[in-house]
Amino acid sequence: MQYGAVCITPLRAGEPVDEELLHKVQSRRLPPTKMTQAVQLQIQKRVIANTLSQTGNAPTMPTLLRFLLRFLAVRRIPARVIGYGFRQEHVHTAIGPPAV
Length: 100
Prior knowledge:
Largest sheet: none
Shape: elongated
Number of domains: 1
Structural class: mainly alpha
Number of strands: 0
Strand content: under 5%
Distance between the termini: 28 Å
């Protein structure tokens, strides 16, 4: 269910949104957010931190990562995961200008 879209009607009317509905929205969206943040943290710890900690010569990426980045499809995966998330939301409501 698109709980976020359901919140639009009372918000546009200047009315409060039911707390139970807000809790449902949060419980649906929190797990994918935490997964995204966990992936970002692992990338930071395993790839970026190791690359930045190298001294002397110019930093290099891990060999496996350099190999995988040769393929366009593989390069697109991180952008899609971060951009769309692990649970994509599709809101199908017509949103016009706010009522005055």
